[in-house]
Amino acid sequence: MPPLIERLVPACEGQFGSRFEILLVNDGSCDDSWQKICDHANQHTSIHQLTTW
Predict the structure, then answer these.
(1) What pLDDT does 2 receive?
(2) pLDDT by position in tens, the chain (length 53)
(3) How many degrees, rounded to 5, is the angle at CA 25 between CA 45 and CA 17?
(4) I need a labelling partner for 3 at 20 to 30 A (CA). Which of 19, 25, 34, 41 fits?
(5) Is the pTM of this model over 0.85?
(6) Contacts by 45-50 with C-beta closer than 8 Å and gap 24+?
(7) Helices (H) and strands (E) in the chain — how many of each?
């Protein structure tokens, strides 16, 4: 996920300035992805987290 975020955020900023949102969805997997999603959301105001369970 970090390489995706590292490329996606600057690309969106270049295209849309500060007017965009990225939704990261936790699908209930047993890995540490929810914590990673929350960390990214805390670092970038344009990233929001959603959980399906």
Answers:
(1) 83
(2) 789 999 999 999 999 999 999 999 999 888 999 999 999 999 999 999 999 87
(3) 30
(4) 19
(5) no
(6) 46/9, 46/12, 46/18, 46/20, 46/21, 46/22, 47/5, 47/9, 47/21, 47/22, 47/23, 48/21, 48/22, 48/23, 48/24, 49/23, 49/24, 49/25, 50/23, 50/24, 50/25, 50/26
(7) 2, 2
Place of tokens 């540490």: 32
The DSSP 8-state label assigned to residue 11 in this structure reads H
| Pairwise CA distance, residues 51 & 29, whole Å | 10
